[in-house]
């Protein structure tokens, strides 16, 4: 059976994160920035901070992330997002996909989801 992790308000019928039934993976739903009017660097850091906080709830850190997906509404933000994102992984960054999308909830500019291993 899966276990939902409670973490702040969500904008739809989903869990912010789910621990797999084998209890060795955590799937973190796409996270949005707290301040959707902030610049893309700030939004990226806010999202990565949320992911870090969710992982802390299950006593793991960013190094446990094995896969992320970044959704951008404007691929011209890629370089700035990449520079901020890189600060969260000192070595062995996770596998990642970055895609441009037509739109995101609440007119966000960026959304990031992650999968991590729980030791």
Describe the largest sheet: 6 strands, mixed
Strand content: 25-35%
The low-pLDDT segments are none
CATH architecture: 2-Layer Sandwich
Q: What shape does the CA trace take?
A: globular
Give a written overview of the molecule.
This protein is α+β, with helices and mostly antiparallel strands and 119 residues long. The chain has helices at 40-57, 78-86; strands at residues 3-5, 17-19, 25-31, 65-72, 95-100, 110-117. It has a single domain, classed as 60s Ribosomal Protein L30, Chain: A (2-Layer Sandwich), CATH 3.30.1330.40. Helix content is 23%, strand content 29%. Helix 1 packs parallel to helix 2. The longest helix is centred in the middle third of the chain and has 18 residues, at 40-57. The mean pLDDT is 92.
Task: Give a short summary of the structure.
The protein has 119 residues and is an alpha+beta fold. The chain contains two helices and six strands; from the N terminus they run βββαβαββ.
């Amino acid at each position: 059976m899966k276990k939902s992790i409670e973490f702040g308000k969500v904008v739809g019928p989903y869990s912010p994160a789910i621990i797999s039934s084998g209890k060795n993976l955590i799937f973190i739903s796409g996270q949005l920035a707290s301040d959707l009017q902030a610049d893309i660097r700030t939004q990226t850091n806010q999202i990565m901070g949320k992911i870090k906080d969710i992982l802390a709830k299950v006593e793991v850190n960013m190094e446990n992330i094995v896969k992320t997906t970044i959704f951008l509404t404007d691929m011209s933000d890629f370089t700035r997002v990449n520079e901020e994102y890189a600060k969260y992984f000192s070595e062995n960054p996770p596998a990642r996909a970055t895609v441009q999308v037509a739109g995101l909830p609440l007119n966000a500019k960026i959304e990031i989801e992650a999968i991590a291993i729980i030791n």
